[in-house]
Amino acid sequence: MKGLYIHIPFCVRKCSYCDFYSLPNRQSSIAHYVRAVLREAGSFPLSQRGIKGDLQPLKNFSLQTLYLGGGTPSLLGPQNLQTLISGLMLVPSPSRGEGQDEGVPQNGEGLKGVGLDLAESTLEVNPESATPEFLQTAKNLGFNRLSFGVQSLSDAELQSVGRIHTAAQAVAAIKLAQKTGFQNISADLIIGLPAQTWHSLHSSLEALTGLGLPHLSVYCLSLENGTQLALNPPNDLPSDDTQAELYEKTRAFLINAGFVHYEISNYARPGFECLHNLNYWRGGEYLGLGPAAASHLDGKRFKNNNDLDAYLQNPTGQVEYVETLSPKEKAAEEAMLRLRLLEEGLNTDELTAKFSPANTSDIILRLEKMKREGLWLQTGVTYRLEPAHILTSNSIFSRVISG
Question: Which architecture characterizes domain 2-280 according to CATH?
Answer without folding.
Answer: Alpha-Beta Horseshoe (3.80)
